[in-house]
Amino acid sequence: MVDRHWGVCYIPGDMKTKDLVYMAFFVSLATAGAFLKLPLPFMSVTFQLFFAILAGIILGPVRGLIAMTVYMIIGLAGLPIFTLGGGPAYVLQPSFGFILGFLPAAFFSGLVYGNSSPDNKYAVYPAYITGIITAYAIGIPYLFLILKFFLNNPDTTLISVAASMLIYIAKDAVLGLVLFLFAGHIPMLRKFAKS
C-alpha cells in the first residue's frame, strides 16, 4: 500500500484548498526564480531548478510534479514567466528542455526524500542531487538537439554541450549545499505542507 503521509498517492480528487495554495506558492517561486538570473552564453543561470526540486522535497512527489506542470502550462499558454518570455514557441528555446526536466526533477527528488526517515535532514542532499541529475538528463539532450538541428550548428556535439553545462551544474550543486545548511527546517516545512 502506498504511504499517504508522504503524498505519494495524492491525486487531484484528493486535493484540498490548502494543497492548491501550496502548489501555487511554488509556481510563484519558480516564476521568481526565472528572473533571479545571471546572463551567460546560450542561457541564463536561474533559480528555477532549485525551486522545482524544493517543491518536490517539501510538497511531496505528486504535488511537486503538479506544481511544476502548472508552471510549464502557464508559460506555454503565453504568460511571460520563463526566463525569456513564454508562449508555445518557447519549446524551440534551447533551455526549454530544462523546464521539461523540472517536472520529473520535482517528482524524483520528492520520492527520494519521502522514502527517507522524516527526521533525517541528511536526506535533503541526495534528494536534491537526484533532482539535478534528472533535470540535466533531459535538458542537455534537448539543448543539443535544438542547437544542432533547429539552430543549425553542425559542429555541436552532445559532449561539447554537456561540457558547457558544467558551470550550471556547479551552480546547482552550490545551491544544494546552501539548502543543506537549512536542512534541519525541511522536515518541519514538509510536515506543515502535509497537515
Architecture overview:
The chain contains 8 helices and 2 strands. It is mostly helical. α2 runs parallel beside α4 and α4 (96-114) packs antiparallel against α5 (124-150). The protein is globular, with a radius of gyration of 17 Å.
Instruction: Tell me which CATH architecture applies here.
Output: Orthogonal Bundle
Number of strands: 2
Question: Helix segment count?
Answer: 8
Q: How is the largest sheet built, in terms of strand order?
A: 1-2
Distance between the termini: 20 Å
Residues in helix, %: 55-70%
The largest β sheet comes out as: 2 strands, antiparallel
Order of helices and strands: HEEHHHHHHH
Mean pLDDT: 88
Which structural category do the helix and sheet elements fall into?
Answer: mainly alpha
Uncertain regions spanning at least 5 consecutive residues: 1-11
What do we call the CATH topology? Answer: Arp2/3 complex 21 kDa subunit ARPC3
| Cα Rg | 17 Å
Name of the top-level CATH class: Mainly Alpha
Taken together, the total number of domains comes to: 1
Q: Estimate what percentage of residues fall within beta strands.
A: under 5%
Concise description?
With 195 residues, the protein is mainly α.
Helix and strand layout, with pairings?
Elements: H1 17-35, E1 38-39, E2 44-45, H2 48-59, H3 61-76, H4 96-114, H5 124-150, H6 158-164, H7 166-181, H8 186-194
Helix pairs in contact: 1-2, 1-3, 2-3, 2-4, 2-5, 3-4, 4-5, 5-7
